[in-house]
């Protein structure tokens, strides 16, 4: 990959990837702090700036917009060059996108702890920052599609289809969901109200997951998994079917968040049906990626980066099985608004997105800096097991807490009164919240090992390694 690197614009890619690593650690560290606060509320320190309600959107924004978007911007701008055999459409524009996006993240870091929020899930930033996001996103779209337009090959590689979809869909739904009437410099009110606002919000909220955390990551993986495996995509035709399946059905699934709400039943049913249909393209894509890795069984036996990718695929299967299941009415009645949903989200976010990002960092960063091997493979192995113990503890703890919590909320006495109080449900799940905290801490510790290992990798002389195994 390092050969011919001078033929492409890679400096801005390096900046994006370094920013992604930094935000992955910062965003997930804030998540561990929040998990600790849920078990030890005294860790709020009676401060309005670091209490749960203000740090939580900073955690989600840091992970989604800091870690994931920086990673997707960096990898997409690299992949579109390599697969199109051309430099970026405009180098100056690429730096405007980079610094513009870092400004967005800085403003989020300042305003969210101060309490400036629209209160919309994954869209908490207030209207002036939203305008900046739209401006930077349009510049990013011009840069990406402009580079595709000047490609020197006829074919558009499938990864770029996924990147293009995530750019377009996120832009359209973000703008619609954030339509608002400003009443001051840092306060606005949505133009939608009631059930309409809920429908539009979850059209956005679920597709932030569907296109930022799914389609974009799939596009990235469809390039790096074959590169790492040293084999072509198992079925290129299946990858295109995977693309159209996700684009065709994912945008309709968001209203499964509104089952048993005041939203019209037919709108709820669309979300349920589309969620169930999504099983097919999701598992087809997972099968395609897994078979790509399995084409090189010898390398898979010993390569922990391939294991990270395989783990990501397995967690993708789990999440895309569990999500449609949770959309079914009787299942939703037990699970929704419990810790189970948090466990589902994080088995996907840490298991699918996190493992994919980690594998990409380990494979991509050394090559971006012209290195051929990691500084420490032993540290890579430690990270693998820390990450997997962390995700397993986190998810299992919240599955148990959520199932128990859901049944306790629904349990009734013979006279129809509730069998358990809210406090009793909280007491039941308290030990599992500690396990959640411990699992998250393990995951973040692994990220710190990764950052140190990659820093040593890119800063050491070629061929200088810490261990041979």
UniProtKB/TrEMBL annotation:
Domain Cytochrome oxidase subunit I profile per the UniProt entry, residue ranges: 15-469
Reactions performed catalytically: 4 Fe(II)-[cytochrome c] + O2 + 8 H(+)(in) = 4 Fe(III)-[cytochrome c] + 2 H2O + 4 H(+)(out)
Manner of cofactor binding, per the entry note: Binds 2 heme groups per subunit, denoted as high- and low-spin.
Binding residue positions for heme b 1; low-spin: 59, 346
Transmembrane segments: 12-40, 60-80, 92-115, 127-149, 161-183, 203-224, 236-253, 265-284, 304-321, 341-365, 385-410, 430-452
Similarity section: Belongs to the heme-copper respiratory oxidase family.
NCBIfam families referenced in this protein's UniProt entry, alphabetically: ccoN
Protein name as annotated: cytochrome-c oxidase
Species: Shewanella piezotolerans (strain WP3 / JCM 13877)
């Amino acid at each position: 990959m390092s050969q011919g690197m001078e033929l492409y614009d890679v400096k801005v890619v390096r900046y994006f990837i370094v920013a992604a690593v930094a935000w992955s650690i910062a965003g997930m560290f804030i998540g561990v702090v929040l998990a600790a606060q849920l078990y030890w509320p005294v860790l709020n320190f009676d401060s309005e700036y670091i209490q749960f309600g203000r740090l939580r959107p900073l955690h989600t924004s840091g992970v989604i917009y800091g870690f994931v978007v920086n990673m997707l911007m960096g990898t997409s701008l690299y992949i579109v060059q390599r697969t199109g055999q051309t430099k970026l459409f405009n180098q100056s524009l690429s730096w405007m996108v980079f610094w513009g996006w870092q400004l967005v993240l800085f403003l989020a870091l300042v305003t969210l702890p101060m309490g400036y929020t629209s209160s919309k899930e994954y869209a908490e930033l207030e209207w002036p920052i939203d305008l900046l996001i739209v401006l930077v996103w349009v510049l990013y779209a011009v840069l990406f599609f402009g580079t595709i337009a000047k490609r020197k090959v006829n074919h558009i590689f499938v990864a770029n289809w996924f990147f293009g979809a995530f750019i377009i869909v996120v832009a359209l739904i973000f703008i619609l969901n954030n339509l608002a009437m400003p009443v001051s410099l840092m306060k606005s009110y949505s133009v939608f109200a009631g059930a309409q606002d809920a429908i539009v919000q979850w059209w956005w909220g679920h597709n932030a997951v569907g296109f930022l955390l799914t389609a974009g990551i799939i596009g990235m993986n469809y390039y790096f998994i074959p590169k790492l495996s040293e084999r072509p995509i198992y079925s290129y035709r299946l990858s295109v079917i995977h693309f159209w399946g996700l684009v065709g059905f994912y945008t309709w699934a968001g209203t499964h968040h509104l089952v048993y709400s005041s939203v019209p039943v037919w709108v709820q049913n669309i979300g349920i049906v589309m969620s169930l249909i999504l099983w097919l393209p999701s598992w087809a894509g997972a099968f395609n990626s897994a078979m790509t890795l399995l084409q090189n069984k010898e390398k898979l036996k010993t390569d922990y980066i391939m294991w990270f990718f395989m783990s990501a695929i397995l967690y993708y299967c789990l999440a895309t099985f569990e999500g449609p299941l949770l959309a079914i009415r009787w299942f939703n009645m037990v699970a929704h608004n419990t810790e189970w949903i948090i466990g589902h989200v994080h088995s996907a976010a840490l298991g699918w997105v996190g493992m994919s990002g980690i594998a990409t960092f380990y494979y991509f960063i050394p090559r971006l800096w012209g290195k051929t091997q990691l500084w420490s493979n032993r540290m890579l192995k430690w990270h693998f097991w820390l990450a997997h113990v962390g995700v397993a503890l986190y998810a299992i703890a919240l599955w148990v807490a959520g199932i128990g919590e859901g049944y306790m909320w629904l349990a009734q006495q013979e006279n129809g009164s509730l069998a358990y109080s809210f406090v009793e449900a909280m007491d039941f799940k308290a030990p599992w919240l500690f396990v959640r905290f411990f699992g998250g801490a393990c995951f973040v510790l692994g990220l710190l090992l990764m950052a140190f290992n990659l820093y040593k990798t890119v800063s050491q002389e070629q061929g200088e390694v810490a261990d041979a195994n």
